């Protein structure tokens, strides 16, 4: 593997991160697949002031709080199913049912309202089928505080996706884990040359902190965007922190090590 500090071209830097080379068949699969968008993600070594360094002192940082709903033994996560309640601030909440994998509803098709996205991390590609819906404050707080089962507030399409992916497990009582606190800032295109880039800082329950740089693009632009991301990170002295995993994966790993009481 190339050393991060020894290379300068976008192609070599992307390879040093762990993304496939331009001629790799993986990029053709991305373009020819059914995903509507691709999000390229790189974990970073946390450092003080990194967000200000990237977006400037006047950049807007938004705080999100993410709650995971699952059985006590994380049975849904084990099947690649994630039910997430998100507090976006200022009274705005949403609820997402997300399923990882090529066949989210075994033996059937996902609801028409489903959205398909690829998360590309160095060395990893996750295909996700998801349905997100806004939730009013009162209902969101009822779910967060476990006064109302989440199944009572799912849309018909969300319920169909959950039941199709998880079977009877989707009808079980789900507890609430979290929150995972996310500080998110959009990185202006004028600074990074990437249309939809952002920097996030995660604070896990228990105090662990991680950072991530991500960029969303069309599948046809994924290879070039991976190179742009790699160049931007190297230019700004941002140090990758492998092994690269999604924040939900790291969170569920942490929860498994410290079971919910």
TrEMBL record:
InterPro entries for this protein: CYTH-like_dom_sf
Domain of life: Bacteria
Protein name per Swiss-Prot or TrEMBL: CYTH domain-containing protein
Native organism: Actinomycetospora succinea
């Amino acid at each position: 593997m190339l050393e991060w500090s020894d290379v300068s071209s976008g192609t070599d830097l992307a390879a040093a991160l762990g993304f496939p080379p331009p001629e790799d068949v993986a990029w053709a699969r991305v373009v020819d697949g059914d995903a509507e968008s691709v999000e390229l993600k790189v974990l970073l070594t946390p450092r003080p002031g990194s967000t200000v360094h990237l977006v400037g002192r006047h950049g807007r940082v938004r705080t999100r709080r993410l709650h995971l709903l699952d059985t006590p033994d994380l049975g849904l996560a084990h099947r690649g199913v994630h039910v997430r309640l998100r507090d976006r601030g200022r009274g705005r909440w949403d609820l997402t049912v997300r399923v990882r994998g090529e066949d989210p509803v075994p033996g059937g098709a996902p609801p028409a309202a489903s959205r398909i996205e690829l998360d590309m991390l160095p060395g990893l590609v996750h295909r996700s089928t998801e349905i997100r819906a806004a939730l009013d404050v009162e209902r969101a707080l009822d779910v967060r505080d476990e006064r109302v089962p989440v199944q009572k507030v799912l849309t018909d399409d969300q319920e169909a996706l959950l039941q199709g992916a998880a079977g009877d497990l989707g009808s079980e009582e789900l507890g609430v884990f979290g929150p995972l606190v996310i500080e998110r800032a959009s990185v202006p295109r004028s600074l990074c040359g990437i249309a939809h880039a952002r920097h996030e800082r995660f604070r896990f329950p228990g105090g662990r902190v991680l950072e991530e740089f991500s960029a969303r693009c069309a599948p046809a632009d994924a290879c070039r965007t991976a190179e742009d991301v790699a160049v931007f990170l190297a230019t700004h002295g941002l140090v990758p922190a492998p092994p690269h995993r999604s924040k939900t994966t790291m969170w569920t790993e942490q929860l498994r090590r410290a079971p919910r009481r």
